Amino acid sequence: MKHEKIFALAGNLFKRWGIIKVKEAMKVLTFFVFLFASSIAWAQRPAAPTEKVELLPGSDSLVIFNENGLEIRRVVNNVRFRHQGSILYCDLAIHNVSTNLIEAYGNVKIVQGDTITVTGDTLFYYGNTRLAIMSGRRAVLKDSKSTLTSRRLEYDMAGGIARYPFPGRTVDKENVLTSKEGIYDTRTKIFTYYRDVKLVNQKYTLTTDTLVYNSLTKWSYFNGATKIVNKDGTIVAKRGRYNTETSESIFDNRTSVENESYTLTGDSLSYDGQRGFARGDVEILDKKDNTLLTGDVGLYRKEEGFSKVYGHAVVRSIVTEDTLFIRADTLYRFENQLDSTQRLIGNKNVYIFKSDFQGKCDSIVYNTQDSTVLFFRNPILWSDNNQMQADTISAFLVNNKLNRMLLRSNSFVISEDTLVRQHNQVKGRTINALFDTTSSLRQVLVDGNGQSAYYAIGDDLNLIGLNRVECAKMNLQFLQNRVKRIAFIGRPEGKLIPPQFITSAQRQLEGFNWRVTEKPTRAQVTWQEEVPPPEPKEKKEASKETAKARLAPSQIIR
């Protein structure tokens, strides 16, 4: 191999591998320096030999003749040569004493030191550069760690580097590697494979275009389209490294890990068969529940069924054609491996979007087993023209549609009546809000400290007045976001205020705060748009007074 080609190859690998660590880069660079030195030695072939190849006694026949002033020896049967500590065996040899060149045929074998043996059918050995070119049906280089086989082996005995330009096969204790061509450094035990590379282990199979394998450390460095298949799934990557002993892998480019139940994808990724850690546009897909977690950073632990994402974190739970989106600072997913259901947890700055309801809170828990969504710490939800607030809220889905909400402690339900441009309100200790199939509010059940303010509308759609009622328990039925019927259990206290006598203070229960401008959109929940900060309290109060001033009683009557 010419040195220009070697340096071009090194530069290309560094360019394509990009973020190889400094220590790793130095190792690889050192390896290419070895190749460069060997190529110089092969190309120059010094004219002045430092040591002549020695023919050892014991052969059956020796014929010496001169050809153009050069001494040529023909040696037959039991042939042995020695050169700089290595022994060469063959059946027939042509030895050019002047040029230190040997042509060997039949049962050719080179023994170098205590560990390396090279065998084949035909050998050209250049004694001045110690380059051995072995060929035949099977040319084999064997050391204490591995066995390399090809049709042709070019072995630099001085540098300890073997190259095969034809398809070759390397076998060690754990692995079988094949490629169209490759290089083996017998001193560092580093293999470099090119074109149609395949590494087969009892635990996995790896295919790639370029692979550097260290048989001592068991680390494989690959570049190009790569696939790793094992019992835990399939890895698809373009650049990275893989430990053939521990199954630990580190990938520097867009990579996916996939098995029968999930897919983990990221711009960079580390994985050991059970645990995965990814950075950059992370996606964790649960195939069974069709749930997708995305974020900047992701963690997956298969044995626990645990996932975590943070940084622009969003979970998408896809059921039929409607998708539930949850956004939070950090999202967790726990899989129940007994029934394959899961629990999703969002922590801090939670926003939720679904076609039939939206909301925000500090933390959330979604159980797929019973289709419940639990909202904690100052939750507020919107459904159609309804707003619900409480210390905690539980939302129950049926057939992926909002069916019921349970509001606990400091519960407040506001329903906007677009006809009179006012708000029906109900508050109490606990509220059950029930919805119809179109996710419109159909019934409100209040239990404890009930208060209501609702507008009575006649059959002619004119305003009758404002009902202000207090009662321990209430049952309100709605139609098109208007109170259709109401039942009070206990001793209700209240009054009907005619339209002309309704004051601004009477229109609202204590704690009323219509916050529809805070209702998140799908784009906001999926981080495509910024979520606007909450309005200052002073501004909210001013907005309320402005709205009240606009709606005089004379304007309400139809």
TrEMBL record:
The keyword Metal-binding does not apply. It comes from Rhabdobacter roseus. Residues 535-548 have a biased composition (Basic and acidic residues). Residues 523-558 are annotated as: Disordered. It holds the Pfam family OstA_2. This is Lipopolysaccharide export system protein LptA. Residues 58-209 form the Organic solvent tolerance-like N-terminal domain. InterPro entries: LptD, OstA-like_N.
